[in-house]
Specification:
Layout: E1 3-8, H1 12-27, E2 31-32, E3 40-45, H2 50-70, E4 74-79, H3 80-92, E5 96-100, H4 108-118, E6 122-124, E7 147-151, E8 153-154, H5 165-169, E9 173-174, H6 177-189, E10 194-198, H7 215-223, E11 230-234, H8 243-251, E12 258-260, H9 268-273, H10 280-293, E13 298-305, H11 312-325, E14 329-334, H12 352-375, E15 381-389, E16 396-400, E17 406-410, E18 419-427, E19 432-436
Parallel strand pairs: 1-2, 1-3, 3-4, 4-5, 5-6, 7-10, 10-11, 12-13, 13-14, 17-19
Antiparallel strand pairs: 8-9, 15-16, 15-18, 16-17, 18-19
Helix pairs in contact: 7-8, 11-12
This protein binds S-adenosyl-L-homocysteine, iron/sulfur cluster and FE3-S4 cluster.
Iron/sulfur cluster (SF4) binds near residues 156, 158, 165, 200 and 237.
């Protein structure tokens, strides 16, 4: 029996990978321990921005100090950052005993055991962008017993000029729909009420295959699984979001009316340099169609400020676009150059302090907008899925609406995991307050 700890960085796909790894190790009779008591630390890592990699590097630095004195813990370095610079990092840090790219996950549990037996280092790199040795395990060991992620597509073929994902996660590969449906069924049978289907671009699901079974068909089939109360999906790409997805959402009430539809910039010139494949006008017309079919939809977005060549005017276009669309939530980021991507070698890189100022400005405005939108919820009666205790306040718990808004409400421990009807009494910056009906 080995003692392991697992730390997850980056996006929900990493959470899903970590949940499967944890489940596979527990099936091998391993035990999960707090980090300080573990022999094996598994890091599931991200490369999306420099900051994401910094966090991992400093964590490994700390484990390495301890390892050099006590021969423990060993570090298992997996995920996007491991694929990008794992070999280089292993030269520097003796504690790293296994490096694996995200598409070799299926070999990781056995490889860890081998490392523990013979002490030899191993490298499982994703050299072929189409190779996929998946871990065929249903992620039943999760933090939240009522919610689970299920990845439906691996990789991405879009190659946006700023983005490292296609370089580290490889080409788009859609999972077999039967395998997805079976996984969701198993999860529902173990008590899951909410599933989120994951992909870097879920709307591209099936576009790498010839059988014509696309995302709308999958969404419909999964939404009809008995016992599944809520179905979500993320991320949508404006270029691939087809009308039939809206029809399916409209017809199936278990599909949550929430769409993450990243715009990335409000300037056509920058969108073109990003290789996003749409104009602001095309994007806005899609938003209009979505809102016509789903009037209560929650729309969220991602935006990058300070992309190479972004002028003050381009930035204002982004700023004004957020004001115009009025997204529920926007994930903002300052552009971070990633080696090997086209944008990293573009001219007119923007100064750090200009990026920081633009990020601040846009965050301030959006946080005000989010609060305004949250206030519009006051008086509405909604159903929430109760997740757990609120971060503060005695007797206070938190749940989520089908539009993924956090609602703070009085409840009790036994009600966690159940649905509750509430009336919204207050809208704050990041959450709503409600009372039970
Ligand atoms: N597939 C999704 C999201 C991928 S990564 C999409 O196409 O939208 C998540 C977010 O990180 C992106 O939406 C983008 O806003 C941000 N991001 C990606 N690369 C970045 C970079 N080099 N610098 C700053 N932000 C970046
Ligand atoms: Fe990256 Fe673009 Fe693919 Fe999203 S669609 S993962 S931003 S390359
Ligand atoms: Fe990060 Fe990889 Fe996800 S780079 S955002 S963990 S796909």
């Amino acid at each position: 029996m080995y003692r392991f700890a697992i730390r997850v960085f980056g996006c929900q796909m990493n959470t899903y990978d970590a949940d499967r790894l944890r489940t596979a190790l527990i099936h091998k009779n391993w035990k999960e321990y707090p980090e300080s008591a573990a022999d094996v630390i598994i890091l599931v890592t991200c490369s999306i921005r420099e900051k994401a990699e910094h966090k991992v590097t400093s964590a490994i630095g700390r484990y390495d100090l301890k390892y050099r004195n006590t021969n423990s813990p060993i570090v298992i370095f997996v995920g996007c950052m491991a694929q990008r610079i794992g070999i280089k990092m292993a030269k520097k840090f003796a504690c790293i005993k296994l490096v694996s790219g995200p598409r070799h996950l299926g070999l990781v549990p056995d490889a860890i055991e081998k490392v523990l037996k013979d002490g030899k280092r191993r490298f499982l790199m994703d050299d072929d962008p189409r190779e996929l040795i998946d871990l065929e395990v249903v992620p039943t060991e999760r933090d939240n017993p009522f919610k689970a992620y299920v990845t439906i597509t691996y990789g991405c073929d879009r190659f946006c000029s700023y983005c490292i994902v296609p370089h580290v996660r490889g080409r788009l590969q859609s999972r077999e729909h039967n395998s997805i449906v079976n996984e969701v069924r198993t999860l529902v049978n173990t008590g899951v009420s909410e599933i989120t289907l994951l992909g870097q671009n879920v709307d591209a699901y099936g576009k790498d295959k010839v059988d014509g079974y696309r995302f709308a068909a999958l969404l419909k089939e999964v939404s009809m699984i008995e016992g599944l109360k809520r179905l979500r999906f993320t991320t949508s790409h404006p270029k691939d979001f087809d009308e039939d997805i809206l029809e399916v959402m409209d017809e199936n009430t278990s599909i949550c009316p929430a769409i993450n539809l990243p715009i990335q910039s409000g300037s056509d010139r920058i969108l073109q340099a990003m290789h996003r494949g749409y104009t602001v006008e095309q994007y806005l017309s899609l938003v209009e169609r979505i809102r016509r079919v789903l009037p209560h939809v929650s729309l969220t977005s991602d935006i990058i400020v300070g992309f190479p060549g972004e002028t003050e005017e381009d930035f204002q276009d982004s700023y004004n676009l957020l004001k115009k669309v009025r997204y529920d939530v926007v994930h903002t980021a300052a552009y971070s150059p990633r080696d090997g991507t086209l944008a990293a070698v573009m001219e007119n890189q923007i100064e750090k302090k200009v990026k920081a100022r633009r990020l601040n400005d846009i965050n301030d405005m959006q946080s005000e907008l989010t609060r305004e939108l949250n206030e519009e919820y006051i008086g509405r009666e909604l159903e929430i899925l109760l997740d757990g205790r609120a971060p503060k306040g005695a007797g206070l718990f938190q749940g989520r609406t089908n539009t993924d808004k956090v609602v703070i409400v009085k409840a009790c421990e036994e009600e966690i995991g159940s649905f509750m009807r509430v009336r919204i009494t207050k809208g704050n910056n990041w959450s709503l307050e409600g009372e039970r009906i």
